[in-house]
Amino acid sequence: MKPSEIQHAIKAAGYNQSLIAKALNVEASSVSQVIHNRASSSRIREFIAKVINMPVSEVFPSKTHIKPRLTEIQRKSAISELKSMLPIAS
């Protein structure tokens, strides 16, 4: 959806970006940035989709390919794997 369509859908549901921000305990600018694809937050995207009763993939089709953040264990494992690819210093 285009940002204006998302904003219209939020208003049609009886809410606004400021209320969504307060419910999520984030700044209103963060909600706006996600709507305008200037920032990425799966939490905000998923909540907006829930508010307007649509699948996230329809509201933010260009963002559905983003993988969720790694857990700390996954992150450490990935770092170890990458380090193992480095040439051995002599």
Write a concise synopsis of the structure shown.
The protein is mainly α and 90 residues long. The chain is built from 6 helices and no strands.
Keywords:
0% strand, 6 helices, HTH cro/C1-type domain-containing protein, 90 residues, mainly alpha, 434 Repressor (Amino-terminal Domain)
Q: Based on DSSP secondary structure assignment, what is the total number of beta strands?
A: 0
Radius of gyration: 18 Å
Proportion of residues in β-strands = under 5%
- At the first level of CATH, what is the class? Mainly Alpha
Distance between the termini: 54 Å
Compute the number of helices.
Answer: 6
Relative helix content: 55-70%
What is CATH's topology name?
Answer: 434 Repressor (Amino-terminal Domain)
Q: For the report, how would you describe the main beta sheet?
A: none
General form: elongated
In terms of per-residue confidence, which ranges show pLDDT below 50 for 5 or more consecutive residues?
A: none
CATH architecture assignment name: Orthogonal Bundle
Which structural class should the secondary elements be placed in?
mainly alpha
Mean pLDDT: 89
Order of helices and strands: HHHHHH
Descriptive account of the structure:
This protein has a single domain, classed as 434 Repressor (Amino-terminal Domain) (Orthogonal Bundle), CATH 1.10.260. It is mainly α and 90 residues long. Helices cover 59% and strands 0% of the residues. Helix 2 crosses helix 3.
What is the secondary structure topology, with strand pairs?
Layout: H1 3-12, H2 17-24, H3 28-35, H4 42-51, H5 56-59, H6 72-84
